[in-house]
Amino acid sequence: MSSIEDLQKFGLGIYHVKDQLRQWVYDRSEAAFEAGDRARDEIRTTQELEARRTFMREKWLESAGGLPSSDHPLSPVITGTINRDGYRIEKIIFQSRPSTYVTSNMYIPDGLTGPSAAVLFLCGHSDNGKQYNTYQTVCQRLVAEGLIVFAIDPIGQGERLSYYDPATGKAEIGPGTSDHEYAGSQSIPLGDGLARYFIHDAIRAVDYLCTRPEIDPARIGVTGNSGGGLQTSLVMLCEPRIAAAAPGTFIMNRSSYLYSGQAQDAEQVWRGMSKLGFDHEDLLLAMAPRPVLVLAVTSDFFPIEGTRRTVARTKRFWEMYGASHSPGIAEDRSTHAYTRPLADAAAEFFAKHLSVPGRDTRKEIQIELLGQAELDCTKSGQVRGDYADARAVYEENGARLDELERRRAALSEDTQKSEALGWLKERVYGGRERCELNPRFLRLKNVESLAPESYLWWSQEGLFNHGVAFRDERFDGKTLPVSIGLWERGTTVASEKLSWIKETCAKGYIAFVLDVSGDGICAPSPISPYSIWNRFGTLHKLTADLFWLDDSLAAVRAYDVIRALDMAKQLPDAAAERVELYAEGRYALYAELAAALDERIGGLHIENGPESVASWVRSRHYDPFDLLSTILPGMLRYFDLPDLRRWRNR
Fold first, then answer.
1. In 3D, which of 12, 9, 10, 8 has the Cα closest to residue 497?
2. 7, 95, 99, 356: which could form a disulfide with 389 (CB 3.0–4.6 Å)?
3. Three-state DSSP state, 617
């Protein structure tokens, strides 16, 4: 006899399963990348090129949930002006959407005699947005070249912190990636991507530039690095008014980045696009034959080899148009940053391609950084401090959810159920080839009055699942019904669930405790410094990679539960035509999805499960731990958990 703690230390000696989820995700991703390369290699004419970029633009917009309306007036307000030697800075607030206040600084060189060229500057993940010293340096370097520069604060940065509390003067959720991921995660079950709001802000910024008499609408460029490089790339894809672009420290290729171990935050994950063969080459070719300069550093977490490969492979698309220029690359020996040499390269690039005259006679402008408060557009330093009606993505999500619920409510019950279950079936089963289970078993030492056996089986090609079947010794040799136990960490926390195991076995059941893909004994090895379950940890990254493939860990694990029903039938002396299912906590989501699709689940018993996904989306505060693995993208377009329960009980 051994203790339950001894059982939890049990290690599989048959197969090494810890790297299977990662390898399975990476293999699928690589196949998609290779298919994308082949499709781009087959482009021979400008017509084929334009058809591809139109297709990718449409699919990206579909992935993001479409763009918000641009009908709302910009209502710009200049809240102050700073006069500098050779230029001035206007502090401007405009509304990209109703009550969405975008804080911005416009750098305007002295001596303009007519409509001139402008560059939209999009910030990376600096906490203080446009006021970040590095970004001030870039803006001042560009204005020194005679360019008007328009720097806007991104969502969740600078003066636009989404969770700023005017009463305390503090942000309840940190700026930058924390802010983005927190609100962005709640966009996913709506079928939206956070990037829809970033790109819409940038498009409305271009709208504003086109209203200024100092600016020639035909001579607008865009640049930014890191998260700003991502935004620049999306502008290249979605905004045809851009005349030239210099994306910084972002362009690479998806294959090289796959192995870097870095997770990206919500606006950087574009659902389903890898499945379509999309890669960063598509971001560049979207600009052909307009001028592009890719800015890169040699020691970035965006791999330089991916950057060089992408630039080299896209040059031929400019040649198709007979363009005298093709995508260039400016490199600096640095870690991740918009360095001064890159700023110099960008300034020269835009001055040349946006036709800025008089460079040789222009007065030299010295780089002098300003304090953050000097550049603030708001009195309080935050739009939420100045505007009681200020909205951020959290409020946008609530409005989107209301819209989806009205749309679902307009359907008949039968229509809603049919569409919902058809969609769910495709999410859970789509693209998965049913394989033989080929189970392996190991007899373990008895634990008190319980006789456990460990099982390992193929849930789908490339992925093992694991479980431990417990029986009460008193029922040895008897045919017993099966109850599957499903909870976070599975068999590795069996001691915490011993009362359920004992009670279930005492009732004459086989208690079959399940380790789904990527959890329990099947939990992956760490591929980043973070805990595998923490935000931006291993499971976060792998789940995001699945989102890119138009899949999800939630769908994979719902499928695991269904395959566990198949496995239950192969347990010795098991009566498993109908199986009970007990689920606890957030993993109850997988149980409810599986039960909606498979009638072999008889009783479904849930403890402390989520009330609904909608209630979480409406929660201003929530626990982000191991969150992405329990999100089914787009689910709320079709149903919520109360719907599944209602249909199951009819």
1. 8
2. 99
3. helix
Q: Cβ(142)–Cβ(118) under 8 Å?
A: no
**Would you say 228 and 122 are in contact if contact means Cβ atoms under 8 Å apart?**
yes
Q: What is the pLDDT of residue 396?
A: 98
- CB contact at 8 A, 408 and 401: no
Residue 96: CB atoms within 10 A of its CB come to 22
Which parts of the chain sit beneath pLDDT 70?
1-14, 358-363
pLDDT at 514: 98
Helix (H) or strand (E) holding 102: strand 100-109
Q: Are 294 and 251 in contact (CB under 8 A)?
A: yes
DSSP line for 47-68 = HHHHHHHHHHHHHHHHHHT-PP
Nearest partner of 452 among 430, 470, 479, judged by Cα: 470
Q: Where are the alpha helices (DSSP H) in 468-509?
A: 498-506
- The predicted pLDDT at position 9 comes to 58
Token pair of 474, please?
A: 């008193």
DSSP H helices, 493-635, are 498-506, 538-548, 553-569, 588-597, 613-617
- Other C-beta atoms closer than 10 Å to the C-beta of 477 total 8
SS3 label, residue 348: helix
Residue type, 342: L
Specify whether the CB–CB gap between 407 and 208 falls below 8 A: no
Helices (H) and strands (E) in the chain, counts: 21, 18
